[in-house]
Amino acid sequence: MNTTTQLGAEALSEEPLARDEERISRIVWVSIFIALALAGLAATFYVLTEAVQLWQYIVYPILVCLPVLFGIASARYTHTTHVDLLRSYQGRLIMRSIELENLASHDELTELYNRRYFYERFQEGLARARNSNRTLALVALDIDGLKKINDEYGHAVGDIIIANLAKVINKHIRNNDVPARLGGDEFAVLMPDTDKRGAYALAQRLWEELEETPMYEHEGLRVLINVSIGVSGYPWGGEDIDEMMHWADSDMYANKVGRRLPTSTTSMPQQTFTDDSGPEDLSWN
């Protein structure tokens, strides 16, 4: 649950519930006080006007107080029941609030964050990085040849591949990273407090995993995919969101050139990631 949801849930669960409990308690205690006062007056009246023998002085007040005691017990039970119902209602509201927050911030197919939420966090993270003189890395990736997969095997298979790729991404990121599906076959990961080397390390982990792990398997069919990955970051890859995204897209396009999608195969072609900056070029055979 993010900070916004937590604050909303706390406000929803504590303040209104406390006010409702206080209001119900006030009504119950006022009712009890009125009932006791009326019972006292009735008992006094009966004793003064009707009582002749000693046992009447004892029995009459008891007979008057019995309904009052029953009313007090009923009021307390009603109070407890109302509070329990309020808590149950508040709990359902909290759960619904969380569900709506998840729907508003997550992609349904992959359960990663959606585009809108990603850019909100991007803006917040970039502002924080600027103010505190810290780094922020962006890893952008998309699937090479997803249209070919959809045409050959159907969109259902393509959806499974997209969902499985999201699981691979989640497997290799940290708790404070922000993974998102930006749309179609486009993904991105925002990595706070991460430099260029850390971003490339994530790219390499993803390639190594995808080199060995089919994203779709069924009845002997194994579909391995290639992904093109672009990396940028603050301050080394742009000063604002547009520059960072442009840098990552350009890097990803350069990576995509000359690559092709293997289908129905058990081996992957060579994966090579080139970084135009020079010394930190990562590749393997």
Topology:
Elements: H1 3-13, H2 15-49, H3 54-105, H4 115-132, E1 136-143, H5 146-153, H6 155-172, E2 178-183, E3 186-192, H7 196-212, E4 216-218, E5 221-223, E6 227-234, H8 241-256, E7 272-273, E8 282-283
Helix pairs in contact: 1-3, 2-3, 5-6, 6-7
* CATH class descriptor name of the largest domain: Alpha Beta
Order of helices and strands: HHHHEHHEEHEEEHEE
Strand runs, count: 8
Structural class estimated from helices and strands: alpha+beta
Biggest β-sheet, characterized?
4 strands, antiparallel
Q: Architecture of the largest domain, CATH level 2?
A: 2-Layer Sandwich
Percentage of residues assigned to helices: 55-70%
What shape does the CA trace take? elongated
| pLDDT averaged over residues | 78
How would you name the CATH homologous superfamily of the largest domain?
Reverse transcriptase/Diguanylate cyclase domain
**Strand content bin:** 5-15%
Count of domain modules: 2
Distance between the termini: 41 Å
Strand adjacency order, main sheet: 2-3-1-6
Rounded to the nearest angstrom, the radius of gyration is 34 Å
Low-confidence stretches: 1-12, 260-285
What is the CATH topology classification name of the largest domain? Answer: Alpha-Beta Plaits
Explain what you see.
With 285 residues, this protein is an alpha+beta fold. It has 2 domains: 3-105; 115-283, Alpha-Beta Plaits, CATH 3.30.70. It is built from 8 helices and 8 strands, in the order ααααβααββαβββαββ. The chain has helices at residues 3-13, 15-49, 54-105, 115-132, 146-153, 155-172, 196-212, 241-256, and strands at residues 136-143, 178-183, 186-192, 216-218, 221-223, 227-234, 272-273, 282-283. Strands 2-3-1-6 form a 4-stranded antiparallel beta sheet, with helices on both faces. A two-stranded antiparallel ribbon has the order 4-5. Strand 7 and strand 8 form a beta hairpin.
